[in-house]
Amino acid sequence: MPGAVAGFDLTFTAPKSASVLWALGDPKTQAAVVAAHRAAVDEALAFVEDRALFTRVGAHSCAQVPTRGMVAAAFDHWDTRTADPNLHTHVVIANKVQGLDRRWRSVDSRALHHAVVAVSEIYDDLLADHLARELPVTWSWRPRGPRRTPAFEVDGLDDNLLAEFSTRSSHIDAAMQEAITDFHASHG
Hints:
47% of the residues lie in helices and 25% in strands. It is α+β, with helices and mostly antiparallel strands.
């Protein structure tokens, strides 16, 4: 049987263009990007508490019940491991929640895991809305290459500029190309 889980990490990551806008912007622009990011994180977490955070009670934990909220800690980060701009926040949610009966129980992790994609999309949309209200920016969908879904990015930041600050993506693409070349050389 696996060990107990202490908590769950939700990561809220600004699109590359918003991170680059923050990194290259003047202090007013930087403050607006960070404020928009933090507001979007707060509102996405409110959605988690309202719609995705439950515990279970009853025989064999058969009944899913609401909680009185969550205990969480947020950690802001500003770059990637390769020092590229990457505004993101890790929110660690404790695996203990208080039910409406005031008893402490474990989080119903299935409900939380089912909501992760929706929470990410909500964060992305809220960030775009907040940033468009604070700065004169617009957003549009951009292709990101083969085998990747399009990305919703800030208009006006050239794709080549974004690529300069995407070291990890460049390394992954290069490794993928090398693996394909090696496979073709070995297997025809």
